[in-house]
Specification:
The complex is a heterodimer of chains A (250) and B (171). Chain A is built from twelve helices and five strands. By secondary structure, chain A is an alpha+beta fold. Chain A has a five-stranded mixed beta sheet, sandwiched between helices. The two termini of chain A are 41 Å apart. Chain B is mainly alpha-helical and 171 residues long. Chain B has five helices and no strands. In chain B, helix 1 crosses helix 3, helix 1 packs across helix 5 and helix 4 packs antiparallel against helix 5. The chains are: A alpha+beta (250), B mainly alpha (171). The interface between A and B is medium-sized, with 23 and 24 residues.
Chain lengths: 250, 171
């Protein structure tokens, strides 16, 4: 089924135009015009409407609309930095309320983005791993995912870590994000947070972490040339840089 | 067993202890350098840089010290292991091993007490530091101290089959 969809997409692009329906419609029109074929006018009308609906693939569009409305988009790509084709992939399982994660973000993560992601050497992926010991970390992850849906993940992530001390006490996440989101963006984010879609994205990250035996944050999983290197706990930038350089030298 | 027997408790413990401890040291060094769990095996530079990250996660040393330790410790472990297995200078080698293991144990206890959840790094990547690793390292330290003690004790009571010491009366 997926192959058929891919083939259709490859031939006809993303258009909802259905060639089978179009051929059927042309046939009905021919029968209507051709005097030798005697078809009752009512039947011709019904057939024409059906074929027109088939041609425009109305049902398909309705299905697509429904699917779009209920299925959350894959947020992984929206919570990543750099190119997927980079030789090194670095996944960071973190919790916005964890002090070690903040230290890692501020001392190492930003420098990795500036020096390795921007040069196309590292594809950096944020993975949510909110720990139960932190009261607001899951809600913070919801806000970050909501911000990702409007293309503001990087700003939200930076603000959440920068103002961790403030919202850690009272859970005022919107106060932390207000410096990087406009009121209209905040309204969109709030709407997504109040929906139920975002938990699925967080759970997906957590399930991936559990598969990789992640138990604490930050945990870094570095993948290069088919090898996976797990690092538990924070790591300083000079040591990580040395590791990247060795991987790139292989 | 009689004290003069070549297989009294002290000598047997010394022999088995240094062989066991030596094998463990050789294995620890080998795992850090070769990363045998990975296929194909990464180059030595990658293995050492990975070990440096494990040392760094203890948040104890500056970069230059982390790097120096990462580039020497696996080789030191290999050398200690080989010396223990061969029995050369066993008193000093066992004493040095005890000091090294005491240092590891102290750092691990400190890290565990601080609540840092990191990898032990003792036998390659991927092993979490916890009660199990603390007990294991504590037992290794006890074994090393025991071997050092037995080695010094054996020096005072030479092997009955060994050559008589200079100046000692020949029976």
């Amino acid at each position: 089924m997926e192959l058929a969809r891919e083939t259709h997409r490859a031939v006809y692009g993303d258009s909802r135009y259905n060639p089978v329906g179009a051929v059927f419609a042309v046939g009905i029109a021919y029968m209507t015009l051709e005097e030798s074929v005697r078809v009752p006018p009512t039947l011709t009308m019904i057939a024409a409407v059906v074929s027109l609906l088939l041609a425009l693939d109305v049902a398909g569009q309705v299905r697509a609309h429904r699917t779009k409305a209920t299925t959350p988009p894959d947020l992984a790509a929206l919570k990543a930095y750099g190119s997927k084709t980079a030789p090194i992939t670095m996944e960071v399982f973190s919790d916005y309320q964890c002090p070690s994660c903040r230290a890692f973000y501020q001392d190492t993560y930003r420098l990795v983005i500036d020096n390795y992601v921007s040069s196309g050497k590292v594809y950096l992926v944020h993975r949510d791993f909110p720990l139960n010991i932190h009261a607001y970390s899951r809600q913070a992850a919801r806000y970050a995912n909501a911000a990702a849906r409007i293309g503001k993940f990087d700003k939200a992530e930076e603000a959440l870590y920068a103002k961790q001390d403030a919202w850690d006490k009272d859970g005022n996440l919107e106060g932390a994000l207000s410096s990087v989101l406009t009121p209209s963006e905040m309204a969109k984010v709030r709407k997504f947070v109040n929906g139920n879609d975002l938990d699925a994205a967080i759970e997906k990250d957590m399930a991936e972490g559990n598969n990789l035996r992640v138990t604490q944050t930050p945990t870094i999983i570095i993948t290069c040339k088919g090898q996976t290197y797990p690092i538990s706990g924070g790591v300083s930038y000079p040591v990580l840089r040395q590791f990247f350089d060795q991987l790139l030298k292989q | 067993m009689r004290e003069s027997s070549p297989l009294n408790f002290g000598r047997t413990f010394l022999l088995l202890g240094r062989l066991g401890l030596g094998a463990i040291f050789v294995y620890a060094g080998y795992v850090k350098l070769a990363l045998p769990g990975m296929s194909p095996r990464p180059p030595l530079g990658v293995a050492l840089a990975l070990f440096a990250m494990q040392i760094d996660s203890y948040q104890l040393l500056p970069f230059w010290a982390v790097n120096s330790l990462a580039h020497t410790l696996p080789f030191v472990e290999l050398a200690l292991g080989l010396l223990l297995v061969t029995g050369l200078q066993v008193r000093w080698v066992a004493s040095f091993s005890s000091l090294l293991l005491a240092g590891f144990f102290a750092v691990m206890v400190r890290t565990y007490a601080k609540g840092l959840e990191i990898n032990c790094g003792c036998f390659g990547p991927g092993e979490a530091l916890g009660v199990k690793t603390l007990i294991r390292d504590g037992l290794l330290l006890t074994l090393a101290v025991g071997v050092a003690f037995a080695a010094f004790r054996a020096k005072r009571a030479p092997h009955p089959w060994g050559a008589p010491l200079e100046g000692s009366p020949v029976k």
